[in-house]
Design a protein that fits this description.
Monomer. Associates with the 50S ribosomal subunit. Keywords: Cytoplasm, GTP-binding, Magnesium, Metal-binding, Nucleotide-binding. With about 425 residues, the chain is α/β, with parallel strands linked by helices. It is about 45% helix and about 20% strand. It is built from 15 helices and 14 strands.
Length: about 425
């Protein structure tokens, strides 16, 4: 499609340390991204700058150094651990005479490799098309003029305009199909809400061990590997939580620093499982030296998708990589379970996780005894039966129904709003 150099599997990596904190990236994480993409890193070129150079992102001298490294190592591609503008990519390609890809492009490539479901493939293609659409002009510079020759002269679309139109049409088509998928997911969520089944969503930095934990507590066989973005397509399984009953556990895509906005937008339907959850299990790699920065990066993404207000239980995973750490539950100043330390790989501490989860979900439950007069018994009793929240019922000597119910606070609030003062009058204090 593009008049560009072919990309291969042998790469020169470029990592620049900036004094500006917003531009800062992690070299170790970048090397893991490159490895996850199946690319061999031949050499890492590093440097320091105060701010990016407008032409090459790096300085002229460093750009020449990168080009020299490409020639000496016989590299097929240059990978930058930063976001490049289309012009910077094109200038570097001219200089290095090979393909140049930035951090966003690399992440998109990994996602393209990992997508398995129809929905996942559509989401990745949407993100790629949105990314490519900003780079069309330098991919088709030789075709900006209109075609000439016999039968081709005269007004009409340039090749570039044709490609832009085709891109727009394809993006619209994908959005329509993803809209159907989103409606199907919404129907599933509504069905779970009607059945009063709480949803627990696993979130966390990529490679924190979410899928390993998911497999451990659900006995599922979700793909889990020691690589970034091993999980792309969301998986839902039913689990049993003491004193709560059935709950749905959702395994979702991992987050990363400076997650491309195109990906966040494309994976809106997938991330909605997180937005609609009753509680989040924030899985953290406790053995990672930068776990605090990773926690902050996850909070930033949760804020971006409007899921930052959902209650969260932190799971400090991989304690098997730490000396002297045993499974335990940490509590906050109010005595509420806030952090669980465990090892998903060895299965140590999972029973503590279930205990903390039961406690946290139970704190969102309410329990009432109602005395319902004969006039309202049919409607009220039928409603409670549909909600499956009746624990005990009996009749008193006056024919009133004494009923004990237990349900989520949010469901009681909805019911109270619908029934009004009638329901409040029935509560036995």
């Amino acid at each position: 499609m593009f008049d560009r150099y072919e990309a291969g599997e042998r790469a020169v990596l470029v990592h620049i340390n900036f004094t500006q904190e917003g531009e800062w990236e992690d070299l170790n994480e970048f090397e893991m991204l490159v490895s996850s993409a199946g690319v061999s890193a031949l050499q890492v070129v590093t440097g320091s700058r105060q701010s990016p150079h407008p032409k090459y992102y790096v300085g002229e001298g460093k750009a020449q150094e990168i080009a020299h490294a490409v020639r000496m190592m016989g590299a097929d591609i240059v990978l930058f651990n930063h976001s490049l503008s289309p012009a910077q990519e094109r200038n570097l390609e001219k200089l290095c005479k090979c393909r140049v890809l930035d951090r966003t492009g690399l992440i998109l490539d990994i996602f393209a490799q990992r997508a398995r479901t129809h929905e996942g493939k559509l989401q990745v293609e949407l993100a790629q098309l949105r990314h490519i659409s900003t780079r069309l002009i330098r991919g088709w510079t030789h075709l900006e003029r209109q075609k000439g020759g016999i039968g081709l002269r005269g007004p009409g679309e340039t090749q570039l305009e044709t490609d832009r139109r085709l891109l727009r049409d394809r993006i619209k088509a994908i959005l329509r199909r993803l809209e159907k998928v989103a409606k199907q997911r919404e129907q599933g969520r509504r069905a779970r809400n009607r059945a009063e089944i709480p949803t627990v969503s696993l979130v966390g930095y990529t490679n924190a061990g979410k899928s390993t934990l998911f497999n451990q507590i659900t006995q599922a066989s979700v793909y889990a590997a020691d690589q970034l973005f091993a999980t792309l397509d969301p998986t839902l399984r039913k689990i049993d939580v003491a004193d709560i009953g059935s709950a749905i556990l959702a395994d979702t895509v991992g987050f990363i620093r400076h997650l491309p906005h195109d990906l966040v937008a494309a994976f809106k339907a997938t991330l909605q499982e997180t937005q609609e959850a009753d509680i989040l299990l924030h899985v953290v790699d406790a053995s990672d030296e930068r776990f605090r920065e990773n926690i902050h990066a996850v909070h930033e993404v949760l804020e971006e998708i409007d899921a930052h207000d959902i209650p969260a239980l932190v799971v400090m995973n991989k304690i098997d990589n730490l000396e002297g750490q045993e499974p335990r539950i940490e509590r906050d100043e109010d005595g509420v379970a806030s952090v669980v330390w465990l090892s998903a790989m060895e299965g140590k501490g999972t029973e503590l996780l279930f205990a903390a989860l039961s406690e946290r979900l139970a704190s969102q439950m309410v329990q009432y005894r109602l005395r319902v007069t004969p006039r309202y018994q049919g409607r009220i009793r039928s409603t409670f039966f549909q909600m499956r929240c009746i624990e005990r019922e009996e009749y008193d000597q006056d024919g009133n129904l004494l009923i004990d119910v237990r349900m989520q606070q949010v469901d009681w609030s909805r019911l109270e709003k619908r029934e009004g003062a009638v329901l409040r009058d029935f509560i036995v204090t």
